[in-house]
């Protein structure tokens, strides 16, 4: 199978057939050669969409393709070539550096801002310390290398945000066999983890009982990413010996609070690594692996139907079809993007071989529709709740991060 790139169009042609009848054209926002750098992909596809200072709702980023096509590499990369998630972490923390509160004093629960008590703040800091302990030594050096590489390639600069304070929370889930699991749960035994319920409120999804941990520094964010990855489910298939058998979604929530106007906005960034799409006979699957592949393909089919329905609805003024976001856990969680409430970026990885001709065409048919979805709604700006506790924490949070009390010392004193 041969691929040709003509500007932003990918031309796919199966070798040995009548060239004109078997040639298919797919248009995307951008099409990259195989030698493109991670930095170029990020600057082109991701960087312009991450704008938490403007109070925009956020964005959803998907990597999609057949097993072994490089989805996880695009998303996470490696130490020498970091992917879009570590680059996004660097951008968010470098640009908001002077305004990020070191203490987790404000949280969003079910779309409402909740000021945390002193005890809750200490509890959140204790969770971070537990994760750092479980990860052990050696993480810091790798994080520093990654951070230095990214900063040298992008030169992110701190933004002037006036009197705004920022609170950053992170969650990490995987969808395995149509069950949602919390990858940052510190309490339960991993072997006995429980599926979680996905609930919906006005087109916004939330997961009941999900661990959302505070990340006051980019080191915290890297630690949470690393801890979640260690919990993810992997299983070997004949296509890819380390093929992810689950969809995973890493979410960064940036809460911005303006002290002068008492207004709160949140930007939610979801990074989704979709499980590999392939036909069952190619993967050599049976038993549990067969069940996994069927569940994976079902959820990807639902995602495709959602994209097609949204596209069709936007082209006509007649009665709108219902977007079937409730038909899979994946589409429920990313429904705000599928319903046009926030931008969605899909990065499609193609493994250009004759053997994967049908799979690649399915991937391209599916993903070329995503380009047509447009954002339609204005973000909600929330008013800060009035309480003495809230006023107290605001006065505390207004100090610069460097002048804050030592939170580790606070924890030690509290435990004594």
UniProtKB/TrEMBL annotation:
Domain of life per record: Eukaryota
Where is the major localization of this protein? cytoplasm
InterPro entries in the cross-refs:
Kinesin-like_fam, Kinesin_motor_CS, Kinesin_motor_dom, Kinesin_motor_dom_sf, P-loop_NTPase
Q: Residue ranges of the Kinesin motor domain?
A: 1-373
Please list the residues that bind ATP.
65-72
Q: Any keyword Cytoplasm?
A: yes
Write out the GO MF terms: ATP binding; ATP hydrolysis activity; microtubule binding; microtubule motor activity
Q: Where in the cell is it found?
A: Cytoplasm, Cytoskeleton
Q: Which GO terms describe its cellular component?
A: kinesin complex; microtubule; nucleus
An individual GO BP term: microtubule-based movement
Sorted UniProt keywords: ATP-binding, Cytoplasm, Cytoskeleton, Microtubule, Motor protein, Nucleotide-binding
User: Which PROSITE patterns does the entry link to?
Assistant: KINESIN_MOTOR_1 (PS00411), KINESIN_MOTOR_2 (PS50067)
Q: Which family does it belong to?
A: Belongs to the TRAFAC class myosin-kinesin ATPase superfamily. Kinesin family.
Name of the featured protein: Kinesin-like protein
Please name the source species.
Anopheles maculatus
